[in-house]
Amino acid sequence: TSLNMKGIKFVFCLIFLVEISTGISMFDQKWKQTTQVLLGDCRTKTGATKEDFETLRLRKIPTTKTGLCLMECLFEGAGIMDNGTFDKEGTIVALTPSVNGDLSKIRKFRELATACESELGHKRLQNCQTGKKILQCLATNGSKYGVQFINTKKMNV
């Protein structure tokens, strides 16, 4: 399925960075439709459960294989992963829409992505563990750069 790139990037921001606002413009509706397509595709590919989706919605790291595979599928769709490995440039692009052009925050995203690239390299782990390692790296290092990716009060690491 060919998806609108802005919509795909929005998936990541939607799940990990922003809360859904109650007012939905026409543009937001298009993003929402694209997001629903990606979520549906990932659910079909991974066999993810409602609980897996709820874990991500609560910004927690999944503990089930289906939840981890769902997260990896969404990361692939958002460009954070490419062919099963961490994609530094894709991560920066995926995060950028969440800061409305704030260059200092974009610079921090670049530093964060560089730190995770150094830590993770381009390893491809089995059983959907790559996405978990990526999120752990972003979460652990994110506070240094003013970004919160996961709900640290209920973190499942």
From TrEMBL:
Q: Which InterPro entries match?
A: PBP/GOBP, PBP_GOBP_sf
Q: Name one Pfam family in it.
A: PBP_GOBP
Signal peptide from the UniProt entry: 1-23
CDD domains for this protein: PBP_GOBP
Q: Name one GO cellular component term.
A: extracellular space
GO process terms (BP):
sensory perception of smell
Keywords recorded for this protein, A-Z: Signal
Annotated SUPFAM superfamilies: Insect pheromone/odorant-binding proteins
Task: Give GO MF terms, alphabetically.
Answer: odorant binding
Q: Which SMART domains match?
A: PhBP
Q: What is this protein called?
A: Odorant-binding protein 13
This protein's species is Pyrrhalta maculicollis
Task: Tell me the lineage of the source organism.
Answer: Eukaryota, Metazoa, Ecdysozoa, Arthropoda, Hexapoda
